[in-house]
Amino acid sequence: MDPPTELPTRFVALDVARSSIMIAAVDARQQVVLKPRRVGVDQIEPWSRAHLTRTDAVVLEATANAWHLYDQLRPLVGSVTVCHPLLVKLIAAARVKTDRRDALNLAKLLAAGLIPAVWVPPPDVRELRALVSHRQRLVRQRSQVRNRLHGVLHRHNLFPPAGKPFGAGQRTWWARLDLVPSEQLRVRQDLALLDSLEPLIREVDDELARLSTLEPWAGQVAFLVQLPGLGLHTAMVVLAAIGDITRFPAASKLVGYAGLGASISASGQMQRTGGITKQGRRELRAALVEAAWVAVQTHPYWKQTFGRLERRIGRNKAIVAIARKLLVVIWHVLSARVADRQADPAKVALKMMTWAWKLGAEQRAGLTPGQFVRRELTRLRLGDMLTVVQQSGRNLRIPPATPAEPDRHDHIA
After folding, report:
1. What is each CA distance from 386 to 144, 357, 399, 402, in whole angstroms?
2. Buried b (16+ CB within 10 A) or exposed e, 19-50
3. β-strands 262-267, 79-83: how paired?
4. Tens-digit pLDDT profile for residues 172-196
5. Where on the phi/psi map is residue 80: left (φ > 0), alpha (ψ -120 to 50), or beta?
6. Would you call 116 helix, strand, or coil by DSSP?
7. What range defines the domain where residue 19 resides?
8. pTM passes above 0.85
9. Is 237 in the same domain as 171?
10. Residue 33 carries which DSSP code?
């Protein structure tokens, strides 16, 4: 919620539908000063310029076009609050619901200070979130196509030659399968869909890599990529979900935002804790669980921690606990801008090199991959003595740290 520039004299609510908006307003005593009226979405901007003032406080629910409306209204009024629609329904539950009643109830809740506001992401966060969501849709479509093709193999007890079952080298094998004509058509079109989706996903990945070199992300990506289980794509998903880390005053707030906190039921003398709430950003939760599986397979510290938890609470609960712990580390490294105390400089440098290879020379600001890795290691204050890392038997050279960049080795406690 924006702090009002002046003391509000009217509290204006917008009940937003697909093609129209119901508008109503009350004063500080919750007396109706603007009877509910319907305005077309295409007319909301001229109507707002004609009827809203700097002493108005406005509220609207978080819907698909909420951010666009927010940008339109913010310069015209004292404050704009985007409210959490689920929590508002819990507060203003009514047996009789109409657009007129909803708009008035929303205005009265704003006047009473009972609106649960949501954070309004700035344009760069919205852009990244939209791109991440677009990639998720493309990947989901690719998975659906692959599942259909696997279904063909399963139904007919077919086993493709060694290698990637849907790779270019297998297309002749697929074309020669003895299938009925309609199934041959479906297989041919599914393979064509795969061929069309792969370059689209790569194009999105290239754009995510480009955004990783621009502010506000460029100064944060290294602190996430250093962590086990987090590559460039996962780091961008996490940053898109979090936005500004300073809006979480404690790690527990971020854990709750991801829906990874434990649910609690307490009444009288009885108190029980259950599974995670799952009330939060789903893509952040999914990315962390995926990263946790990689971390427990590749990093000794996380592998040991997972083994200890698995023996006590079981495999599935243990990996969720690892995801939660990993998110706590993310909060610390982003808030303090420090290296992880479990970081292995050589492994971190390899991940930075992979990041550098995904970028062009222009995106690396003219730096070679090795110089890019040194810059990011310096940002982490990590690996000042590291000049060579090995990958698949190759020695990858990194320029030495300059004397002006002393080895400070600040790590999270």
Report:
1. 44, 19, 8, 12
2. ebbbbbbbeeeeeebbebeebeeeebeeebee
3. unpaired
4. 999 999 999 999 999 999 999 999 9
5. beta
6. coil
7. 10-111
8. yes
9. no
10. E
